[in-house]
Amino acid sequence: MKKVPCMIIRGGTSKGVYFLKDDLPADIAERDKFLMAIMESGDQTQINGLGGATSVTSKVAIVSKSEKEGVDLDYLFAQVGIGQKVVDTAPSCGNILSGIICFASEKGLIELQITRRYHKCRSK
């Protein structure tokens, strides 16, 4: 059995399982078969999988460095079926999108350089 690293991240109102694209099968049918197995999409309860048996907890993010000029990351969202064996990559999910920076930083795909300034109200 091959080990495939992942991270479970809460993004907005959703929770997703995040993978590096290179860690998943390149063949789309094989990739989807793997995602359905890891989430246990065929079971309504998903009790033995990483899915949470609700539409907001049966989501996947597939992330990689982008080869497009001016773009840091490529991201593919997948909604995995609950009680049915299906993987839908047509929709998008802003909640899961919000977690890709954390994931990419932890996986070394990007380097964070953020400067923030704030002003405490009622101070001089």
TrEMBL record:
Xref: InterPro entries: PrpF-like
The organism of origin for this protein: Actinobacillus ureae ATCC 25976
Keywords assigned by UniProt, alphabetized: Isomerase
Record has Ubl conjugation as a keyword: no
Similarity comment: Belongs to the PrpF family.
Listed name of the protein: PrpF protein
The keyword Ribosomal protein is assigned to this record: no
Coiled-coil region: none
Annotated SUPFAM superfamilies: Diaminopimelate epimerase-like
Any GO MF annotation of the entry: isomerase activity
A Pfam family it matches: PrpF
